[in-house]
Amino acid sequence: MGFCKSITQCLKAGPLFVVFLIVCCRSNATNTKSDVYLNEWAVEIYGGNDVADEVAAAHGFVNHGLIIKSKDFYRFSHPKLKKRSLDSSYEHLQNLLTNKKVTWAKQQNAKRRVKRDLDFDPNTGPNDPKWSRMWYLDKHRLTVFVFQAPSQDPNMGVVEAWKLGYTGKGVSVSILDDGIEHTHPDLHANYDASASYDMNDHDSDPMPRATWTNENRHGTRCAGEVAAVANNGVCSIGIAFDAKIGGIRMLDGDVTDIVEGLSLSHENNIIDIYSSSWGPDDDGKTVDGPAKLAYIALKQGVNKGRNGKGSIFVWASGNGGRYQDNCNCDGYASSIYTLSISSATEHGTIPWYSEACSSTFATTYSSGSWQHENIVTTDLNHGCTESHTGTSASAPLAAAICALVLESNPNLTWRDMQHIVVRTAKPDGLHTSGWIQNGAGRKVCNSFGYGLLDAHAMVQLARNWTTAPDQKQCNITVISAEESPKFLKSTRSLKVSFQVTSDCTVGQPVERLEHVQAELTLRNERRGDFTILLTSPMGTTSQLLEPRLYDSSSEGFTKWAFMTTHSWDEDPHGLWILEIRQEYNPSTSQLTGTLSLFNLVLYGTSE
Ligand SMILES: *[C@@H]1O[C@H](CO)[C@@H](O)[C@H](O)[C@H]1NC(C)=O
Ligand SMILES: *[C@@H]1O[C@H](CO)[C@@H](O)[C@H](O)[C@H]1NC(C)=O
Ligand SMILES: *[C@@H]1O[C@H](CO)[C@@H](O)[C@H](O)[C@H]1NC(C)=O
Ligand SMILES: [Ca+2]
Ligand SMILES: [Ca+2]
């Protein structure tokens, strides 16, 4: 094969082929570069709180109690350890592990978690009642109001849902963020202290910490979008203006796995909907997701929360568009347990900050560039703002719409909510060339998921919704570590085709799909060069990953679950094709990569 300049040329140059290679000595070094270790530990102990107290006392720790209800993990601190240190304490770990009652222990390290608003604020002035500025709630009324032709832009159907009587009554939403100014005159009447907590200071008051720069305004802004009080002559109107609103203060301090686990599992029979507008750095080079406790909290939330119907976790898909970030590299947004939401500008275009990926469910309106309108909401210091932005603003709008939907049918499970989103979100009027039609006949794309949320259509469908049958999981090992890993060479491309029958390596057969995950262990010289495509038997190609310009890591992906919602309601039987490409990059010398694990994990029902 001769020299070729571009990946397409290379692909044309010869048939795809697969070479086998044995990889040895792969080090599993953890990424400890700039971690800060705290004097807090998560410790797994069976036998109850008294046993945990004994263990703590025996090893000089203090036991602060269970992290996640009915899971045996305790929060310990050690008074003699530095509150923050660049070194983890191997000695204390060994010491704890000598105790037979301790089955697992981990010193907590601070994670980089960023709020998903944007780094500019056009600083608009007055605090008048803002209904006429809330363009995203009733586009048609507002454009007629300014004597323009009626807008063809799609509508989120909020006013129509209100007209049916759904305003969030009886539903509790909590904002996981930097706190909530619950004394705000536009929030106070809807504030729910039992849906609130301060995980940063470990007390019950999530009031934001005051600073000169008002940096801790994010949670208060998100809260107003959901449940600012209507018709009180103050500021704005929340989409679910009769819902209860709480706040969990957890971003204003070191965000550890314990903090995330505590927050995502807090009072999950009181809180119905958790809205998270934060996550790993959107810098286009991070691959990070929930660690042990956060993962357990999400999983337990959907299984046990809301008295077994499942907590609704709404997540902002990310603001890394400028860095070509991909939300499938964010394990929170791409989790099957979260309803991941992207943004559209007022004209239905893709905002500059938007991240595209196949795990996004749907979209709500948000800001765009300077000539586009922003989101109106409550602000710190009893204020009101017209300049809330980013996917941070989109997730709470979606959480509020979910509150209207839960009011219309409180029996919905977490999966029912996802089914309703997939069936009702509207692609029309959202502009991208990325739309495809999947095997279930629905349009879907990486920038908007299934389209703009439509509260009106959602509540109507929810009212007569029949609970989805139990979720089944069929986990098929296609390539396992023991087999020879695959090798990508001069073609820079690898195709793995395999037939899905009714056999699962683990689990039970799925007849009708919901989520699909490709769990991959994949390495090359430069992680940002990978493109990953997964094609279902019904011909739907999900782009699981696109190249990330700034990701020059050589660490690859280790058992990373790339998720797609795009085959929802398809029949999984038949030929699946995983294709991995390495884009041409002048900075890489070797063009080789290895795929040493591939589990295809199908979720859905067996009906
Ligand atoms: C919810 O479930 C209860 C008990 O099964 C039933 O009586 C009620 O009609 C259901 N409500 C809706 C809106 O489906
Ligand atoms: C849906 O529910 C409404 C009442 O909530 C009822 O009037 C209507 O007949 C139902 N439609 C179907 C198709 O069951
Ligand atoms: C799928 O099965 C493999 C092998 O048993 C296991 O290691 C992996 O964690 C499973 N994946 C999921 C998502 O359950
Ligand atoms: Ca108001
Ligand atoms: Ca991201």
Automatic annotation (TrEMBL):
One Pfam family, short name: S8_pro-domain
UniProt-listed InterPro entries: Galactose-bd-like_sf, Kexin/furin, P_dom, Peptidase_S8/S53_dom, Peptidase_S8/S53_dom_sf, Peptidase_S8_Asp-AS, Peptidase_S8_His-AS, Peptidase_S8_Ser-AS
GO terms of biological process kind: intracellular protein localization; neuron recognition; peptide hormone processing
UniProt GO cellular component terms: Golgi membrane; trans-Golgi network
Residues annotated as the enzyme's active site: 177, 218, 392
Domain of life according to the entry: Eukaryota
Needed cofactors: Ca(2+)
Principal cellular location given in the protein's record: membrane
Single GO molecular function: serine-type endopeptidase activity
Signal peptide span: 1-29
Domain P/Homo B as annotated: residue spans: 467-607
Gene3D superfamilies: Galactose-binding domain-like (2.60.120.260), Peptidase S8, pro-domain (3.30.70.850), Peptidase S8/S53 domain (3.40.50.200)
UniProt similarity note: Belongs to the peptidase S8 family.
Protein name per the record: Furin-like
Organism: Ciona intestinalis
